[in-house]
Design brief:
By secondary structure, the chain is of the alpha+beta class. Helices cover 36% and strands 19% of the residues. Bound molecules: phenylalanine.
Length: 360
């Protein structure tokens, strides 16, 4: 049996050298692997007549030869299909298309948001994700142990006090020292003011972290934060800016295939804005009638308000001369609420399941 297999192997190697066309190749395939009379097929049929102790070994050897033959035939087939039998390569044949990917949905959303705000003069900034407590909380009018901090389910990095060599923020108190994974993009507010350039039209888009995980929360998500500071800024500017964004991001029914969208400002409380609001957008799934996702027709997408005088002071700005507004939204939530998408679980965005991602 061994000899028989060896000679099949050798015969095949010699025979494949002589193949010039696809027709030759088909003959060759038939000669060795043909169901009825293929040399290897016949040899394999003989296996069962061997003494029991030899069957396994010979079977394995035969299988290996078979695999090898199949592989060689396949690759020669591919080669011959490209080049005609006379060696002519037809350059006019359509090429093989390679699959075309696209940016991740969240990256696309971030670019779209940045572009919308750029058009009205917001400059995109980036501030640290691993942040001093001072910028994430204290400078935002939330002194240590303030109960409002509990709303942000914060990840703390370490307990050691910050030392000067790690760049202690100039105005931080000696006890401001813990580092956190920033739970919101508002950490950029005082940082931006500290650049010392007025007026301010800042857009801070960044990763943010909170200890939460369910259909509408992931421990890492993104926020975008707008901050405007100038003379005579009032609530109408805030409302106008938000209206502008919503109209441009959530396209009207005709263009996006969903219901028309509306916003409302609801009074709320944040330590760093006064007055403060939460911004609701009418649900894109049910059109505001109320459904499983939104319950009452509205979805809370953002927090906003007029910058608190203490925050301006922390950033070195005189609250008697300047005023401003700020708003912070969840990128993923906003994206999920686009008309016609109907994504009802935020975790889908981070599962990297191509069957999901390819739909967009
Ligand atoms: N930082 C707030 C949050 O994460 C949102 C906010 C930003 C509120 C700016 C007011 C002003 O919930």
């Amino acid at each position: 049996m061994k000899d028989q297999l060896e000679s099949i192997k050798k015969d095949f190697s010699t025979a494949i050298e002589k193949v010039k066309s696809l027709a030759d190749l088909a003959d060759l395939e038939n000669k060795f692997l043909g169901r009825k009379n293929g040399a290897l097929t016949l040899a394999m049929k003989e296996l069962k007549n061997l003494p029991k102790s030899k069957i396994a070994e010979a079977g394995q050897a035969a299988n290996e030869i078979k695999k090898n033959i199949e592989l060689k035939i396949k690759s020669l087939k591919a080669e011959l299909s490209q080049t005609g039998s006379d060696g002519f390569f037809d350059y006019t044949l359509p090429g093989q298309e390679s699959p075309l990917g696209h940016l991740h949905l969240v990256t696309e959303a971030i670019r779209e948001i940045a572009a919308i705000f750029e058009r009205v003069g917001f400059e995109r900034m980036r501030y640290p994700e691993v942040e001093w407590d001072y910028y994430a909380f204290e400078s935002l009018n939330m002194p240590k142990d303030h109960p409002a901090r509990d709303e942000w389910e914060t990840f703390f990095i370490d307990k050691s006090p910050i030392s000067k060599k790690f760049g202690l923020p100039a105005k931080a108190s000696a006890t401001a020292g813990q580092r956190v994974l920033t739970p919101h993009t508002s950490n950029g507010q005082v940082r931006d003011m500290e650049r010392g350039k007025l007026p301010i039209r800042m857009m801070n888009i960044s990763k943010t972290y909170r200890r939460q995980m369910d259909a509408s929360h992931t421990p890492m998500f993104h926020q975008f934060e707008g901050l405007v500071i100038d003379k005579d800024i009032n609530i109408t500017h805030l409302k106008g800016t938000i209206d502008y964004f919503v109209k441009n991001f959530f396209l009207p029914a005709g263009e996006a295939g969903g219901p028309d969208r509306e916003i409302r400002l609801r009074p709320h409380h944040f330590q760093f804005t006064e007055p403060s609001f939460e911004i609701d957008v009418s649900c894109g799934v049910c059109g505001g009638k109320g459904c499983k996702l939104c319950k009452e027709g509205w979805l809370e997408l953002a927090g906003a308000g007029m910058v608190h005088p203490n925050v301006l002071k922390a950033g070195g700005i005189d609250p008697n001369k300047y005023s401003g507004f700020a708003f912070g939204w969840g990128v993923e939530r906003c994206y999920m609420m686009k008309s016609g998408l109907n994504i009802d679980d935020i975790r889908l965005l981070y599962k990297n399941d191509l069957r999901f991602l390819r739909q967009f």
